[in-house]
Amino acid sequence: MEASEMEEISSLKEKKKEFANDNSKSIESILSSTGFTFKGERIRKYRDRIIDWSEDKSNLNFTKKNFFKNCEKFGVVTTIFDPTIAVKRVSKLNNWCVVIVADKKTPTDYMDKLENLLTYDESGPFSTCGDDIKTKSTNKTNNSLENIFFFGIEEQLKWESKAGHLGAFFRKTPWNHFARKNLGYLFALINGAKVIFDFDDDNYIKLGPLKEPLNVFPFETNIKPNEIMIRNVSVPVLGSYIFNHHKLMRPLVNGTSYDGSTWARGFPLNFIMEDEITNGEILYHKDVKLGQNKQSIGVIQYLADGNPDVDAIHRLSKPLPMNFDFSSDARPILVPKHAYAPYNAQATIHTYNAFWATLLPITVPGRVSDIWRSYFSQCLFADSDLRVIFAPPKIMQCRVAHDYLGDFQAEQDLYSKSGKLLEYLSNWDMKTYNYTHPQFDIPHRMQQLWINLYEHGYIEKDDVFYMQEWIGTLLQFGYTFPKLKPKHRNVAVMGQFNFADNKNSIFTWVQKQREQFKEVLVAGSFPHKIESELVKNSIPFIQNEKVSQPGFIQPYENLAVALQRYKNSSSVESVMYLHDDFIVNLTEASQGTYPFPTNEIIGTTLAMTKLWLSYENPRKYIDMTNKSSTEIYIAKMTMYKIFTNGTISDIEKHRFFQNSNQFYADYLSKTKYTFYRKYLPNQIKLTSDPDAKIFLESDGSMIFPAFTQADFLFVPTKYADTFSLASKLHAKHGIWLEIAIPKIVDMIRQKHEGVRTRTLRLCTVWFRKRKYPFQMKDHCLGSKVVIGGLHPAKIDKNSNWNYSPITFDTYNGFDTLFDAMNEDPFTSA
């Protein structure tokens, strides 16, 4: 290392010490002169107040003022300019009210000018910004200001004197800052808002054929959320946690030339050339209910034509105008739950469940504030079942003249910090995981997140204080935060792919599992091109070089690797193995509790728990249900002993057989499970293997339990070493998965006392001609019996066994069945 480099590092360390001693300094003041790239590391500690919202019982005693007729849909805007047609169009939406938040530079005669503006009709075509106003309106009833509230400076100052968090929030909101808009959100909420349209006064709603503004929320708020349907939503499949929605919305530059290399303001610059991993691919479309358990929509952002919301670098380097597809084929896009995409405060719908997430930070420039808000919120959305949709452009942006270089300076945080911010947020978590803990809610998680963001240099301390007053105000006005439906943190999910050459199938599977689990990995014999895709998209994987018959032995080998990978983890306590064609009912697997119970081995065959072996030596079978059944009888009849000399007997040693052929013909053939015939010789070799001696019974035999369908297995990591040893022995002798798994589990029971096991009821359907997935849904989920797992449910026909024709010809089928099996995983919490 050069002496100059050592001096620079020493200097940076001194500056970090300076930071630790003086928390009042901003990250920029410390690092601006160093020339170092922003690392996103923790550079200071928060030492101020932390509020326990479960104990904060203060009351505002604030009387609501009925400024409006009964309004549930509000447009909110702040401005320092004269009124524009953009404001007029929002005010003309049927059953909408508008809140205009003034700042110190807002014209004092704003409402007079707006009233005059309302007296004119528009004569331009639907796509214009409405500047060509030529005639006075003859419709006097259409010129009313009754649904418009001007939240002027004098009124705002009155609110500063209010008691409790409300007054403190108003006092902390800076003047001459974009964040004055926060007061409008709060005003709308207090006055009964169920939906907020967050817009700028240079974003014009387009006009319809009758010159009426297009409805930005074409639903009635008195309809139950589960009855509001957003039709034909495109579902992209994405491996990366960074999503660039532009390409899928088909941008056209100068109205004619398609340009797939555009990006929205706030998109990380270090990813703008990574189209292959950030664009995603649309594989199917579906109707989305606004308030469905698994897909509550929190935010809908409309793209804008003309001069859309891109950053200064984009404006300085690419031509304008730019439009997006608004044809009959244009569809909204659902952002994957695990991914981040920047949405703005220029033409965005916020539903009631996401009102808490409208808060704009105050210690960053306005060009950064709404983007930071979107990223912070999406981090918390992931555990709140709130989703983001980007919608085709009902908006034309006629941007007020800006200095692009001035914008460039104001957007510095977006350029230098966005990439590290998203990396941090995608891995962020808080220590409290207990679903029933009083602090396991959005207010406490939001507080912890903003404190951590301060400590890592993304915002300043005043934003933490400001957020605390915001939460306090919402609570004191009786706002109901949505309940958390968090991802499981203490279980890793491993998907076994026998056919590992279809990227979209793998990515679809990973994306759906990421809706429920923090840790998701895939395993299989991946071709080089797929392995490269997994690496590029940061998807953890296990590469198994045994290409031949990958589903026969690989699953338990790969599960052993996964258990070893996580056995020393501070968070992951179990690994759940799923074949790619198995869909588990998480409510049943987790018993409806959070965090996921990790004290049992869980499988899918009745014999695994209804008939097991005692811990005594010599061991004998025991019926754990004290009931007689066909399954138990078959399990008893298919348990056997193999001795090191190759002799085989039934479990009670009533009958002995000298070789595997005789044993199968005289004893096991009634099971019609032909794999016994094939693998009995392998089990004989396993029994005589010196490395297996520790698993022999006192009479020198090895007991083999009944076979089990083995497309699913849940194993606590505390059994990782024993599982690995047992799986190596079985793999060494090439023993088939469904025969190996029961014995591997039994070996764990031999070496660990008190091992608990449990099964899920499996619905297996093998149609002999191709059927649609919905037939499987009706067959398996239509009965009164609770199903713990579905099999086989392959994602698409390209990943299909020749003799397993129940596949999903569309990815929509897999998505539908997956959601049907996991409607609400916390019903017992």
Q: Judging from the principal axes of the Cα atoms, what is the shape?
A: elongated
Find the structural class using helix and strand composition. alpha/beta
SS field, number of helical segments: 26
* Span between termini: 56 Å
Uncertain spans, ≥5 residues at pLDDT below 50?
1-13, 15-34, 767-772, 797-809
Mean pLDDT: 84
Count of discrete structural domains: 3
- Helix content range: 25-40%
Please tell me about this protein's structure.
The structure is a single chain. By secondary structure, this protein is of the alpha/beta class. It has three domains: 73-476, no CATH class; 488-604 and 762-821, no CATH class; 623-707, no CATH class. It is 33% helix and 19% strand. The strands form nine sheets. Strands 1, 2, 5, 6, 7, 12, 14, 15 and 16 form a nine-stranded mixed β-sheet that branches. Strands 19-18-17-20-29 form a five-stranded mixed β-sheet, sandwiched between helices. Strand 25 and strand 26 (648-650) form a beta hairpin. Helix 17 (550-566) packs antiparallel against helix 23. The protein starts with a helix and ends in an 8-residue tail after the last helix. The model is unreliable at 1-13, 15-34, 767-772 and 797-809 (pLDDT under 50).
